[in-house]
Structures are given as C-alpha cells and as structure tokens.
Sequence to fold (228 residues):
Amino acid sequence: KAGVTQTPRYLIKTRGQQVTLSCSPISGHRSVSWYQQTPGQGLQFLFEYFSETQRNKGNFPGRFSGRQFSNSRSEMNVSTLELGDSALYLCASSLEGPAGAEAFFGQGTRLTVV
Amino acid sequence: AQSVTQLGSHVSVSEGALVLLRCNYSSSVPPYLFWYVQYPNQGLQLLLKYTSAATLVKGINGFEAEFKKSETSFHLTKPSAHMSDAAEYFCAVSVTGGGNKLTFGTGTQLKVEL
Fold:
C-alpha cells in the first residue's frame, strides 16, 4: 500500500511570503503529525491532527498552523516566512489508538526561505 | 514532560564491529520508546519500538534494544556493522495521553568504515 506522500518535495520562498505544505497519510490512518527538522534544533513536534481536530500542539508561534480534511489529508501553513523557517518539514501518519503506535514518515518537504 | 538524551552525536565503527548507540530517557509515566533511522534526504524509518511487553526488543536489519528502567536507558545495538548501516539514528519517546506526539533525541550519525 502507498506510503505517506508529501508535496512538494522542495520549495523556495521569499521572506514574508506564506507557504502551504501537503501530506497524504497512509490509507486508514486518521492521525497526522508534523515535525520540523533543522541542523540546530533537530526534530521538533509542530502539531498532531486526529479526525480533523488538533489533538496536540508544540511550541511554535501562531504563524504555524495546520488543518486536516475529512479524508485525513493534512496541510500545514506558515505565514510571514522568516529565514529561520528554512527546514525539512516531515509529516507522519499513525493508526488511531493510544501512544505507542508506529509513526510512518513521508520523505519531507525541504523549505528554503531566502 | 518527557525527554530523550542521545550520547554521542557522531559514532564511528569498523565494518563487522559492534554498533552501540546510547539513549537515555526521562518520563514521569511509563514511556513508549522508539528508534528511527534516517538516510540522507529521506524521512524516518522505524527500526524498533518498546511498548511495555518484552524488555529486549528486536527490530529490522539485525538491530535490537534493551529497555532498562533502573538505568532509564534504551540503547540500540547491532552485533556486526555493515556499510549500509551508515545513517542518522534517532531515539524517541511518547507517553499515554500524549496522542502520537514523539519527542526526539538530537540524533547520532553513524559512520561505518572499511
């Protein structure tokens, strides 16, 4: 079965612009989480959506937002881009259930802010 | 809050030698622990996970890890390194009530030399 699909794979944006990243989870998975990966900060949790509701949120400013659709596909949006937002953004999908479920990761979207 | 510490940001071993990557966790409730591997420009792939069943967990590609509550450790080992094991390895923790949120360590870059 198909894995987690993230689009686009690469993106270059200018400071001050906004960007939307997309994630299609594995069929049947209702939980989608987003992570930011940078050399300096490592892997940091952004938020998790489950059945179209945000279930968890990390410590990121309000410029970072997300949503989940009824088919479990998710998008994340970053407004007013800053140079420091340059990162690999990873999406992960999981089955519903308690913690301990395996997270399946997409290949990520590499965002470069210039 | 839970956290993970990975000792050694870079580990180098000879092909055929033992691989030992260290992970210590901190959690006020019973944790779920994971090891993920990341190859360049790729997402993360699950190697193995501990979910309170057996304390010795076997994963893919010959890796295993032992959960030691007394030492709050979950070190990753492989008896004989292969060139294809060269990658970055991440230890992560989640807890019941935290949904599918993963808290990652800073990662260990494994180099395998001939």
